[in-house]
Design goal:
46% of the residues lie in helices and 20% in strands. By secondary structure, it is an alpha/beta fold. It has a 5-stranded mixed sheet, sandwiched between helices.
Length: 182
């Protein structure tokens, strides 16, 4: 329970809590604040019926409290956690976009959460993460073969790199389509 966490969390620089039920998010974040935790990341699973939810009011409350205290909170929503390797493809969406799929592979979630801990732009923010398909896999393959570290890769994904490439691809496709109709 959050009350039992005061001693183990006392003045911790960071705390990660994975797959926290929504009803426990605020009590857990308050306990972390009271204990002096400087950086908190909480993930929560959305059921199949809630996978399109983008607003997690409990994340909003925790984020507001952490920001007011001059500390950093990151809320991550995802679908059910399934077995899977950290090298598999994934998609990170911002706080206004639904998760692209209803599941996340355990290895991917662990890797991305660990990297977000040290990525400043993820402080006091929220996002969604899901496992993803071939377009994401191709983009990640390009990033990984270009020599980026995993931290740099996750930063690009968190910053919407995949969405930018998707928009460019669609725009190029439309231009090519228009040219072929002339």
């Amino acid at each position: 329970s959050p009350g039992d966490m005061q001693k183990p969390l006392k003045d911790a620089s960071a705390y990660i809590a994975v797959d926290v039920p929504r009803k426990s998010i605020v009590p857990l974040s308050n306990a972390a604040l009271d204990a002096g935790v400087k950086r908190l990341i909480i993930t929560t699973s959305l059921g199949e019926e809630d996978i399109n939810t983008t607003v997690i009011s409990e994340f909003d409350e925790a984020q507001t409290a952490f920001r007011a205290a001059g500390r950093a909170f990151t809320g991550i929503r995802h679908g059910r956690i399934v077995a899977g390797d950290e090298d598999n493809s994934y998609e990170i969406v911002n706080s206004t976009v639904p998760c692209l799929d209803s599941y996340i592979e355990r290895g991917v979630l662990g890797r991305v959460v660990a990297e977000l801990l040290s990525i400043d732009i993820s402080s006091n923010s929220q996002c969604g993460i899901s496992s993803s398909g071939t377009f994401s896999a191709a983009y990640l393959s390009v990033l990984r073969s270009s020599g980026l570290s995993r931290n740099e890769e996750v930063t690009k994904m968190f910053s919407g790199g995949l969405q930018k490439v998707a928009r460019l691809t669609v725009n190029q496709y439309k231009k090519d389509e228009e040219k072929s109709m002339e």
